[in-house]
Structure formats: C-alpha cells, structure tokens
Amino acid sequence: MDRLDNTIRPYAWGSPTAIPHLLGTEPTGEPQAEMWMGAHPGAPSRTDRGTLVEVIDADPEKELGPAAVAKFGPRLPFLLKILAAGAPLSLQVHPDLAQAKEGYADEERRGIPVDAPHRNYKDANHKPELICALTEFDGLCGFRDPLAAAGLLDDLGVDSLKPYVDLLHAHPEDAALREVLTAILTADPEEMSRTVAEAAAACTRLGGAYAPYADIAHHYPGDPGVIAAMLLNHVRLQPGEALYLGAGVPHAYLNGLGVEIMANSDNVLRCGLTPKHVDVPELLRIVRFRPSDPGVLRPEASPDGEELYETPIDEFRLSRYVLPEAGSAHDLTRATPQILLCTAGTVRVGEHDLTPCRSVFVPAGEKAEVSGTGTLFRATVIA
User: Fold this and answer.
1) CB 3.0–4.6 Å: which of 64, 99, 276, 357 could bond 95 by disulfide?
2) pLDDT tens-digit profile of 161-171?
3) What CA–CA distances, in Å, run from 288 to 96, 116, 270, 292?
4) Phi, psi of 255 (to 5 degrees)
5) CA 273, CA 252: separation in Å to the nearest integer?
6) Pure H helices in 73-116
7) How crowded is residue 298: how many other Cβ atoms within 10 Å of its Cβ?
8) Is 205 an active-site residue?
C-alpha cells in the first residue's frame, strides 16, 4: 500500500485553521479549503511510486482490480476530500450522467476550451457526492416546501419580494419553484442588489432561522443567490451525520469541517454566491424542481465494527471505523481499491501509522489490517 502525500487547495472560502488543527501544524494565515485524496488529474495524490494517476496507469487491473476496471474503466472513480468551509461555497447543482455526457459533447463540438471560464462541463461524468461532518456543519440542501419558502420571504417585510411570495403560492409546486428561481436569477442586477440589501438587514434584525442568510449576505452582498438560498432547506449536521447530494439537487456548504467523497468529476452548474459564470438556461435544464427533505444520513453499523453511509450509487462507498482501544484489530482487505483516512487518534494500517489527515491507498486485494485507537474513514467502490 502507498502512503499518500496530498494537495491542499487554498480556495478563498476555506478555513485558515481547521485543516492545520487536524494536521497539528501552524496555520499560515491563508485559507486551506480542501485536501484532495485520489487520482484526479488536477491534483493527484503523490506516492513513493509517483503520482496516484501514474501508479494506476502503469497497471490498472493490479491497482484497481478486474471488477472495478470492467465497471468503471482504468481509473479511480472517486475523489476523497477533507473539506473545511470558513465561508459559504457557491450555490450549485450537478448533472446526471446522461446530462453530463450530452453537455460535454455539445461544448466539445462548439470548440469551447475546457479551461474557459464560461464552460460548464469539464468532463462527461456525473458528480454525486456525500459530506460527512467532523464538526458541527451547516449547509443548504434541496428545495423547501414552496409555502414554507413563501412564509420565510414574506416575514422579511421587503416589498420587492412580494412577487416571489405570490408565485410560490401557485400550483403545481415544481412550476412555482422554477418560475421563482428564474425570476431571481434574471432580475435587473441593480434592483436585485437593493432587494438583497433590504433582505439582509431584515435577516440580521430577526436572527434565529434567518441568521444563516444574514451570514451568507455578509459574504456575498448584493448576490441574487442570497434570495435563492432562502428557497432551500437549511440543515445543521452533528459530527458523524452526513448528507447525500444527488443529481439536480441545489445545495451549498456554509460552515464546518467534513469528509467529502464524490464521483471523479468537475461538473458544476452555479446558481449564485459566486463571481463565476452562471449559465441560467443550462442551470434550469439541470435543476430538479421538487421540494425534498434534506435526508440526514446516520451510519449503519455492522457486527465487524464498520459504520456504512448508504448511498444509491456505485462509484463510491464511504464508511468509518471508530476504534476504541489499541488491542482491537480489523481486516479491511477488499477486492476493490481503497483509500483509508485517519481523522482522530492514531491508527495503524499495515506498516503505516496514521494520524489525523494522513491517508494510504490500498490496491485491490492487498492485505489491510487496521488497529489502534481513533477514527478511520474507508473509501472504496461497489464493483
């Protein structure tokens, strides 16, 4: 197995302290947003044998196993991260697999450079994802019931929001949500900026359920995404709880530290809370306009101590082991590739001692015996 040396991405929304605290290093003063573990070409993990991309490319069947290669091709189909949000991320949605293939092929035909700021599809893959909280973690996930969203907006007492309130009382629900989001994202920028300022002031005054939106507005003054965010469910995860985010579900992470796993893709359609490109027509094609409960996940424990976060896709499978005492040992050998990540204590994996934020890549079928005292996350695939 290979000990991983992982890249930390310094996105502006990142916490300057959360990842250094886990690593036991001094903060640099710069944001440290995400630590990437995997074989994504943008920032592949490094090993003593080369980057993880190079290791897998040299012998995909040995590293990934025949079943995984047959199902997903000669590449690691997931990307594992530690995510540390010190400020809200962009409000966004991801395509399903058919939409991603269609969108990617269309932009390729039109000759849009893959690194162009207005390009939507960096690849032909979907991007379902799961976030598991390590600390208390705030996010937005899925549409509220339209009547609940109408009540939230109406109680702000902002006259320019009244048309949205009226639209949210219309039927059917999906059409009402589509019409309101379209109106928000296509409104006159100056008028919307004034509306957001009034709404932000009201959120600050009211507090309580409005506090998250006051904070969002503080970070993104005048952004129409502030109003769009109020159409979504606010959820606060406790450590160990998780959210699964499937295709078409609008979401944003607001604050906190977590382990995130996703299909290996960069495809993001943004709805706001960002200076980046917002393609409204394409966004409206991808978003699923139906109210939903955020669906907080809690792990299902098995007799061998594995706690699994159930999801409906095969590109990733995330579980954890909470090891209470140094004498206990677990055999995690599996016929599919694995990344094992320590988030607390000291865990021994084979010949490697892992402390928080440290990880190893375990090739398919390689012996993986785990012991120690701490918490270990296991990322693999279903093949």
Assistant:
1) 99
2) 999 999 999 98
3) 11, 26, 14, 10
4) -165, 140
5) 9
6) 97-109
7) 12
8) no
Q: How far apart are the first and last CA of the chain?
A: 20
Going by pLDDT thresholds of 50, 70 and 90, the confidence category of residue 69 is very high
Residue whose token pair is 């699994």: 308
30 — phi, psi (to 5°)? -90, 155
Q: Which of 3, 46, 270, 320 is catalytic?
A: 270
Tell me how far apart the alpha carbons of residues 94 and 71 are, in angstroms, rounded to a whole number: 22
Dist. CA 64–CA 73, nearest whole Å: 9
Q: How many CB atoms lie within 10 A of CB 286?
A: 21
**pLDDT tens sequence across 110-169:** 999 988 999 999 999 999 999 999 999 999 999 999 999 999 999 999 999 999 999 999
DSSP string covering 317-350:
EEEEEEE-STT-EEE---SS-EEEEEEEEEEEET
**Phi and psi angles of residue 115, each rounded to the nearest 5 degrees, phi first:** -100, 10
Coil, strand or helix at 22: helix
Question: Mind listing the pLDDT tens digit for each residue in 194-233?
Answer: 999 999 999 999 999 999 999 999 999 999 999 999 999 9
171 close to 289: Cβ distance less than 8 angstroms: no
Distance set, CA 351 to CA 45, 55, 178 (Å): 19, 20, 54
User: Measured between alpha carbons, how far is 209 from 195 in angstroms, rounded to an integer?
Assistant: 19
CB neighbours of residue 352 within 10 Å: 16
